[in-house]
Amino acid sequence: MTTEQQRKDPNDRIELSLAPKNYDASKNVKFERKEIRPKDLEQTLKSYNYSLIKWKDGIRDGANYQFSDGFTIDIDQGLPIPDAETRLKSQNLNYFLIPSKSHTPEHHKYHILIFFSYPVYIKKAYKKMAEHIITDLFPECDPAVKDASRFIFGSPDNVIVSAYFQGENFDVLEHGAIWDNSLALTKSSGNAIYPTQIDKKTSIYCPFHQDNTPSAFVNHSKKSKNWYISCSACDQTFWMERPEFEQRCDPYWSYGKDVFELGIVNEEFFIEKIGKAKFHVLTKTHYSSEEKAAAFEYLVDNKHISHISRIDYLGDIETEESYYRVILEKGIIEAHHTPLPSVDQDNSFIERYLEDRFRQYKDFIKEYLAVFCYTNHQKLPTLILKGPRGNGKSTFAEIVGEIYRPLTFEWQGHEENFTYEVEKKLLIVEENESTKMSQYKTLKKYSGQKYAMVNKKFKDPYKIRNNMNIIMLTNEVIPLYVSREEQPKDEFNNQFFVYEFPEIKPPMDPQIQNRILKRLGHYIRTELRTVFNNITDSGYRYSIRVPITDAEKSLFVDNVTDLEADTDRYLQHLILNHSEKQDGQYSDFIEKGYLPTKFFRDIQAKTHYNRVIKNLKKRGFLTGEQMRFQINERREYCFEITQKLKDEINKAKSECL
Questions:
Q1: 356: which residues sit within 8 A by CB, 6+ positions away?
Q2: From the CB of residue 533, how many other CB atoms can be counted at a distance below 10 Å?
């Protein structure tokens, strides 16, 4: 015999369930699991009743099936042993063949142990393997041996065995999954855990070989929506078995009183109410009332969303395929979107492009793009790109928009009744309404608020976490209304990057955008990853240092409304005239810290003086309400002058000396 030859097993062991040898089936209820070396297999099978199946607590019952290391073929007639051996070796299968107690030279009766490549933890899968072995290899086998409670009586001491361990074990992975969510996994800490209790990649002891150190991990695939175990020692990935019924229900969720379909189409996340009737048709459970009840019960028990607190639309540079996930306990839906693919590897081409378009601000733009690619819900400055047509500002904005194309939106620059834009990551505004203060307030709101409401036609509003970034493109000299008082004083707190694109030197490349996009996927995954990892959190309000350009300074200086211009005229008149002692009419009041209301009525302006007074209060020059004061027997209605205005007057006086 050949039991000295080694079975191809990483631990050189065969596990068997053993019971004392007897020939009364009713006495074979309790079995003990033991490890047997191949060289001891012959004596073991002659001394014990046995099975390759392990039962819970050793109690032999199909309901107690836990796993099996192989399958035992039972031949009672019709196939001589030499023919069986020839058949096995033609398949290069490892086996151990032992005659049974009823074997005679004339009538060959025997058992063949076929060893699995890995333990099979699902009873249904075990029966599937048995069916394959019987149908494809040994149709002469007794079909009753497929029973998950089957055991074999020990053989007589005088039978002659044969074995072959130079081939391969039966490859169970060719026939489907071999474990399901009922399998208790052992973490590196020694604690048991089930797949559905795991929310991240977790180190475990591999259940598919005798693992002395945690050589495997269990994780959830976002792409396939399924769990898997990956083992470095086995050099194999084992996918979990999911019932077909569950797979059919994958896109459907119970929410409120109805059924909704969630999914990704053309790289965009959607959520649509479909109703119960359509749900049953799509899951093929509409044929009977029992199937309908079972399907809807499964949905409510396992996939009921009590409340959608918000939907997060995310750019995810680490994922290869867009996907969504529902965090039931928090009522949050996350829609993860993959960036544009990597095609060509040529980072230097993009470096030259950025250098040509942004010059001394190239490093700033690289940091902006790095934060945009690698984060979500992190504030970035609004880019305001100026210049005449044909200088490449639209090309740049479209290139950035292609990084996460489904999360890019061409926006008008102001709020409307339906706010499709707020669920996006990048808003591109072209030829905006630069004179409207409302737009400035909207930009401040969109760049500052943590959450936003999505209003879509024929749909209920829902909340999202704000992930918006804005690029504005303009040919105007003054591209945007801004509040002059909010002009940034440092790069730590600068909301706008205002930049005038330089003229493109001839010859122009009409294919520059396509050439950039082919290289951009690799660039953002390599060069921008390095840039992002080197960004330090130094207290910047908008994530990175935002340069204050000359174009931005001009934007704030040039943004003067009629109100601000008139306010400036009043201030100039007041400060200069009083400092030069030319305003004797109100000088006594001003010296005491009060400014009479009549002062405003005496000067002609486009703006009503009440608005000017409010603006002066806003700018910190006046305070309080109008009150009547008497100085040198004159009574006038006055506003109190602040120290800020007093300082301006005193400064002007000193300059006149």
A1: none
A2: 9
pTM of the entire structure? Answer: 0.66
314: left (phi over 0), alpha (psi -120 to 50) or beta: beta
Residue 415: its pLDDT value, please? 67
Residues 6+ apart with CB under 8 A from 599: 570, 574, 586
The pLDDT value given to residue 210: 87
d(CA 219, CA 221): 7
245 Cβ contact partners less than 8 Å away, ≥ 6 residues apart: 283, 294, 295, 298
**pLDDT tens for residues 336-378?**
999 999 999 999 999 999 999 999 999 999 999 999 999 999 9
Nearest Cα residue to 217 out of 237, 196, 246? 237
Task: Report DSSP letters for 461-503, one per residue.
Answer: -EEEE---EEEEE--SSS-S---GGG--SSTTS--EEEEEPPP
* Beta carbons within 8 Å of 196's beta carbon, 6+ residues apart: 181
Which domains does the chain show, CATH number per domain? Answer: 14-174 (no CATH), 185-239 (no CATH), 244-337 (no CATH), 347-448+467-557 (3.40.50), 562-656 (no CATH)
SS3 of 363, please?
helix
Output DSSP code: residue 69: E
Pairing of strands 469-473, 382-386: parallel
Number of neighbours of residue 223 by Cβ within 10 angstroms: 10
Q: H/E element holding 227?
A: strand 226-231
Tell me which amino acid residue 523 is. Y
Quote the CA–CA distance of 184 and 207 in Å, as a whole number.
9
Nearest to 400 by CA among 480, 448, 470: 470
Report how far residue 391's alpha carbon sits from residue 396's, in angstroms, rounded to the nearest whole number: 10
**Collapsing DSSP states into helix, strand and coil, what is residue 405?**
helix
The list of the chain residues with pLDDT below 50 reads 1-11, 434
Task: List Cα–Cα distances, 408 to 228, 288, 420, 421, 424, in angstroms.
Answer: 34, 45, 11, 8, 6
Q: If you count them, how many residues does the chain have?
A: 657
